[in-house]
Amino acid sequence: MRKHVSRFLPLLLALALLTAPAALAVGEDVPGLPQASLTDTAALDLINQVQLSAAGADVSAAALTGDALPQSLSADDLAGVCSANDTLVRVTVTGAELKAYLEWAAACYNQWNSGDIGISFQPERPAHTRDVFAGVDYELDLSKPAGERVQTVRFRGAPLSDDQQLKLVVSSERYAVQLKGQSLISGEYDWSSRQTLGALISDYLAGHAAPAAADGNWSITGVDLSLDSAERATLVALIRSGQLETPYAKSLNLNHYEVKNLLASANNVKLTDLDQFGTAASFADADGVPYFRLRDLAFLFTGSKDQFNVRWDGKVVVQRGQAYDGGVLPLPWSIPASAAAVPPAEITVSVDGADVRVSAIAVDGHYYLSVEGVNALLGTSATVQDKTP
Prior knowledge:
The protein is α+β, with helices and mostly antiparallel strands. Helix content is about 25%, strand content about 25%.
């Protein structure tokens, strides 16, 4: 089942911000999103070139069967990500019909809204319906509603007119189910392949080199993903670390109240003797001292010399030097304002079998400690950092 943003978001930033690649224009830095639907790729360029060559067509359209790109541009790897067992058909279409087909393909995206940190997709449009075209140059303006997104379609360097005749090659399934089934075109196919797409790819690569890079004939426009935003960087890094689910069907939006609350309740903690830091659920008490969820810190410290495990056995039990083996807790959208008014209480923590008293605040069944309290309890040297490195 595909991951979607749930009511709660997990917690850890960890090393991701230190190792993250630069964000790209349409959100390719958000892991888990289908790259072939965000930017032109050599894989789909090659598949389309195979189809154009086999059919002697002007324009080709193809899609991958899943979100993953092939490991390589070999025939075997390509066969694993496309409809390799399907055959092809060629049909004459008008420029207006091709634009209607382009609009159908572009309807797979959700409309971009100001504050969205990425591009998201209609959940009822699986990967194999997100067609990419070759033989024409075009732009998709995702700030527009479905049906109004296709911009500046050009064929062989000139604007494509509505009455222009073109030979289009597609899979036989796409022709039957969408082009004819949804009345996108009126013509009948005049050629069909005897070989499957997989066989055609294999034959083509026997005599041609795979493209070194995508040709960039299409692009997404009309979006501003706040690439320079520190808040966006935090959210993307949480996704990249694997602790935050990919916002596939609905983008996280920096203007949304819940996202603002989530970011406000997340602070960074750093181990001063290691180049390692991460985000944990936190709140400031009445004196402005931040309190952090103990299990978040156990998860954050894992892999360092100061790692510790924590569990409940009638009281809090801590074992120093052991990696945290508990589950990742969700980062709450917000922490009750009343938590700040609760004075810390002394609790007993078993540390390596010895009882230690430490001040803590309980929120929603979990103990929160100040960094100073954690350092006193465990002999660690953590500090509170700014939200971004």
